[in-house]
Specification:
The protein starts with a helix and ends in a 6-residue tail after the last helix. The chain is about 45% helix and about 15% strand. A four-stranded mixed sheet has the order 1-4-5-8. The chain is built from eleven helices and eight strands. Helix 4 (about 100-115) runs antiparallel to helix 5 and helix 6 (about 245-260) runs parallel beside helix 9 (about 325-350).
Amino acid sequence: MSETESAELERFRNETRAWLEANCPPEMRKPATSDADVFWGGRNAKFSSEPQRIWFERMRDKGWTVPDWPKEYGGGGLSAAEHKVLRAEMARIGARPPLSSFGIWMLGPALLKYGNDAQKKEHLPKIAAGEIRWCQGYSEPNAGSDLASLQTRAESDGDDFIINGQKIWTSYANYADWIFCLVRTDPTAKKHDGISFILFDMTSKGVSTKPILLISGYSPFCETFFDNVRVPKSHVVGTVNRGWDVAKYLLQHERAMISGMGERGVGRPLGQIAADSVGTDGQGRLDDAMLRGQIARFDVDEAALAACAERAVDLANAGQAHPAFSSAMKYYGTELNKRRYEILMSAGGVDALEWESERSKQGARPRAWLRTKANSIEGGTSEVMLGIVAKRILDLPGA
């Protein structure tokens, strides 16, 4: 980087720091306390608080819900270096993301790469503005880790496809406005061929959802059913029967997104949370040597994941990213998050098992611990991720 470029980036940092200090409400500099405290956008979206609305609208108007997207699609048009600075400055004050969205994390990148001009202009600005909430139609009852075995079919009917079938584990399908969906458009083709990637409105006739109750007591996942759903062929992203290319590219971004749960983000350090239950010794250290060691190892691994995530972003921006690297990140991040909650449960002792009491805030800790068990399944199981790493990155014989 030249001196001029360095000076410009430092100027951007100072301006960004000042803008964030002036515009991020104090309430938005604290971790979200529940899923209801996260703004997902959508046609029927409601803000949980006035500060949440203010923060979202200010960031949206700045283009910083999607800082690195082109301005013509509602983004901020920031360079890779500027985006990195913005992330660092938001982390410095503990600022929450103004908008959580599968459209941002998964569909948006796929549309930027594979979408035609009309699809980009139609969908990307609405994603950036939080106007449409998306869900993902990938997994099926008999096509989970072996996703290419999917059987939801789309039959040609003039300018439309008629879609029939079922998806499962569709996150927040009961709240979503639109779905990005994998369908089989050529049943005679090989397994990975004959699949198309298509977009359609969840209010279309023939679409229905049914929430799935989890052991945690929550229902973030749904069964989704399609009964003669008519969708224009113009809604296919990329080429008909070549949807697997789009699907694989999107999965890279999904797995990178899921891996982020392994990072601390803006929450309190694990040692501080554990000290609430265990207490400290005369030297101010956590009063449990074994737990102290577990947390120290966790903190080192957490820092390594954060550094690895930054490296992944830099490699992607330089066009040098390995397409399978997101699988390694997904494995490491989800297994790390499971470790985090195992430690939290150990630190809480018997009190951590409270399920429904005022003190435990309706069993927040054990419910979150149970939820983490799905981390190493959703988006591709840990076993599948390790297989991809062995085959695509390590090139191990027989993988």
